[in-house]
Amino acid sequence: MRATRIRSVTPHVLMADLAEPFAYSQAWYRRRGAMLVEVVTEDGIVGWGEAFGPPELTAPICAWLAPLLVGQDAMAREALWQTMYNRLRDHGQRGLVIEAISALDIALWDIAGQALGLPVHRLLGGPLRCEVQAYATGFYRRELQDHLGYLTEEAEARLEEGFSILKLKTGWGLAEDIALTRDFRHAIGPNIGLLVDCNHAYDVPAAIAFGRAVADCDIGWFEEPVQPEDLDGYLEVKRGQPIPVAGGEASFTRWGFRDMITRRVADILQPDVAACGGISELKKIADMANAFGVRINPHVWGTGVALAASLHLLAVIPDNPPGLFPRPPLLELDRSPHPVRDALLAEPIGFAGGVVQVPQGPGLGITVDRAALKRFAA
């Protein structure tokens, strides 16, 4: 097959004000945005990628990396990934640089699928599944006093939409978190799946105390209990309380996940395709985790571009462990306010009956609405 050479690389910074601010344990959100990168080949194929993290910071890194890609064969994804990573290895082994590389890598996979007329999951060797059960992310803090009241209303809305698993945000203080978690479990009843995420708000003693205090609430996992750099802390929390421990959204590349996997610091790993190094790198991380018997449930918190990329990966991540009654990976489906996300795709990825279908069109299988690009351009 003839080379499909790259003609241009264009970052797009998108931003929108929120009608109602919300918070997680580390910060308030009054605006939400996205950084998309558009990679165009000389024969007119357009690939889209997305970076996790502050759009105003990842966009200039993509622009800086662009000359390394222009004129190169877009099908040489592994070679281009190595070129970008090695060029900034001394300066960006994690964080913003890897998030920018992630966006570019996703766009290259989108191009490859379109060039070959195949969805990305076919290029990855799948699918193992064509639909994925989703859980609802949301349940953030608002500028209201009756926290349980509005969280219960939100839960009712999600259950009406078809969700059967909800993820509660904590990190408001140990005593309040324990009470809120127990009250929320009582409000939604015993038959709804419940996950808890404190976004590394605790130290080890507090995380262990929380896990023990809510152990009878049937919680599927306890996400980011301590700071992501504190792997020894993860191990202590995992050993000190009975809820499965999850983490990894703030970890990067196969090297960043190597110690998490070999030391078994978490029961469930959550690499984000728009942060950890893209589709190329998340597939490597997932394969490495599978060899050690560690479950993978990717973190997803972006627009339809990151969602589509995550779905293609979820189509090929093996059941762990396999068997007649497997526990397949779940899709994180963000339901918190995000005007850019809601307007970006010409045909949004649908959710019905508790599941999301894996896109079947060539590449990522999505079409970006250019009117939305203009509307939200920052």
CA-atom Rg in angstroms: 20 Å
Q: Structural class of the helix and strand makeup?
A: alpha/beta
- Residue-averaged pLDDT, rounded? 97
Largest sheet: 10 strands, mixed
Ends distance:
39 Å
DSSP strand content: 15-25%
Shape: globular
| Total helical elements | 13
The amount of helix comes to 25-40%
Total number of β-strand segments?
A: 13
List its salient traits.
single chain, 378 residues, alpha/beta, ten-stranded mixed β-sheet, three-stranded antiparallel β-sheet
Short structural summary:
It contains 13 helices and 13 strands. The protein is of the alpha/beta class and 378 residues long. The radius of gyration is 20 Å and the shape is globular.
Tell me what the structure shows.
- The protein has 13 helices and 13 strands.
- The chain is an alpha/beta fold.
- The strands form 2 sheets. Strands 4, 5, 6, 7, 8, 9, 10, 11, 12 and 13 form a 10-stranded mixed β-sheet that branches. Strands 1-2-3 form a 3-stranded antiparallel β-sheet.
- Helix 5 crosses helix 6 (174-188), helix 6 (174-188) packs parallel to helix 7 (204-213) and helix 7 packs parallel to helix 8.
- The model has no long low-confidence stretch (mean pLDDT 97).
